[in-house]
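CORE FACILITY INTAKE
Project code: CF-77B
Contact: R.S. (postdoc)
Sample description: multi-component assembly, two entities in total
Requested service: structural model of the whole complex
Turnaround: standard
Below are the sequence entries exactly as provided by the requester. Do not edit them.
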Amino acid sequence: MLQSIQWKENCLLLLNQTLLPNKVEYIECRDYQVVAEAIRRLEVRGAPAIGVAAAFGIVLGAKEFSNSQYFWTSLLKVAEELGQTRPTAVNLFWAIERMMSVASRYDKNSDIADVILALEHEAIAIAAEDLDMNSKIAHFGAELFNIPVSVLTHCNAGALATAGLGTALGVVRQAFSEGNITRVFADETRPLLQGARLTAWELMQDNIPVTIITDNMTGWVMKKNMVQAVIVGADRITLNGDVANKIGTYGVAVLAKEHNIPFYVAAPVSTFDFTMESGLNIPIEERDATEVTHFAGIRTAPEGIEVFNPAFDVTPSSLITAIITEYGVLKGPYNEAIAELQQKIKGV
Amino acid sequence: MLQSIQWKENCLLLLNQTLLPNKVEYIECRDYQVVAEAIRRLEVRGAPAIGVAAAFGIVLGAKEFSNSQYFWTSLLKVAEELGQTRPTAVNLFWAIERMMSVASRYDKNSDIADVILALEHEAIAIAAEDLDMNSKIAHFGAELFNIPVSVLTHCNAGALATAGLGTALGVVRQAFSEGNITRVFADETRPLLQGARLTAWELMQDNIPVTIITDNMTGWVMKKNMVQAVIVGADRITLNGDVANKIGTYGVAVLAKEHNIPFYVAAPVSTFDFTMESGLNIPIEERDATEVTHFAGIRTAPEGIEVFNPAFDVTPSSLITAIITEYGVLKGPYNEAIAELQQKIKGV
């Protein structure tokens, strides 16, 4: 199976997603700054994957400063720097907090080697849980598919976005293996083409039929009844069930509603922000204008043109048919379903 | 003013729109095949513009065969070839038919020089009417704007798509000059980026504030109340008011409805297909997969990937607030409004 993130003792290997599908190349991260840079440049991307990468980034940072008399302040700085790479996906902060809470069990008198070992175990656990979570989401999600249908997905919530099978694409893989998904339509997902480059590539590797379309074809594909369901991932889910995800997701959700097509979101509990009431408060990352004005170094828009380039949007829960988690499938009213989910997590 | 189409006696100059915004270069068409090829390759594009170009293509064809004993059959072949360049925009067929109906006033005993002169006059008349039509549409359309708003447009229905000010962008230019449009959001319009390349370029030339976005940002821009109206062109309008236009238009119309934003279509009467009941019957051109899989010669999707690449979609009249023509503004029920329009045209 495709492994986008691999841990080899003192080195984190990250499949460089900016080079796909033309080149399969791993970045060797031997210090935390390389990890932070890889997250910032989207060389590693996808909410669960950046959580796992950041966890190992903290391990690398801890190792770098293991002999420093400023170990503890350095570790805080590492966590802070990793946390500043991207603002929207909550899994990043979730993973960093989880790592720092392990560190906080130790104090200034502890043996630093013990701290580092505990951090490494925690990061490995986060990656292993991600794998397990993917598999559970895949199975819960596949139960929503009972007859053969074509599905549409946006961006990449696949193996490349996680340490495992993927969230949305994990469900696709499972439902395909059960004969209930016959084809995937992948929005190319401008500006960075995660759909055309990544989703198409990873589904082709698994011999799952996939057709790419430009983002503006989604409505027409639905109108022509070429897809019967939508499934996407998420970068942050608030208490009322609002979902931040790759820019364009909101438009797809409105179109799905117009065509009476179910709109599913697949995401692990680490994507839920239990401190935030609604999607209105989610900070939306705006990225560089050149992502829109250039392509592969070639200018495609006039010099000096103004650009609006939000990387995410927020889909209100009213447009979401179900949210698939590793604890089961949530349906509205989401305030209640998510409160119950929180109880379940605490109970485990 | 920008002139995308110029007629210089035996030569049709077409601004090569595939090279914009990086290069301003005219194609010198001295025979009809070059015109046909320019239409096919979208070097000249936009429904009204390809009508005008095809009209001059017929003049060039007639001149080429002026000394041939097979003049009349050759002229038919020229018309047929030009008509086969693109299937969706009806202005192409409208212009060709109008030219051939002028030719049909002559017979085998006529002086060919007279035929050619009549054809040239007709083509010049079509171009002049286009200019006049643009100006009328601009004024009728601007009456719909009474307070300063930002508008969104898709693809390019501007000076580059016509012989004059443009249809949708003609309205924008007029309403801007009256202080009622403050900014234009231009969807980049994949796969060929007519929004980012052409609309952005021509509005910047006129110092009209313009912001480009990727197609999948439209919903979010509406949700954030950054635009208060949509205005687009059309490639074919049927008797019930359904509108074929650049792929993605349908999705924009659905999103406009969801956000209670008026959705306007600006098009000359040559865009109306008075022989077709509804949009269901409009042939939709599908273009080469490489438009989606490649960008500026660089492959951006995996080899062997399947692609769906319709160049147009159909927006049902129920989503259209008004259709702006050179005869005035049409509102629903469109069956009646378009029947009245037909009477008006006949009456003039």
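Facility notes:
- The first strand of chain B starts at residue 5 and ends at 8.
- Chain B touches chain A through 58 residues (CB under 8 Å).
Invoice: internal transfer
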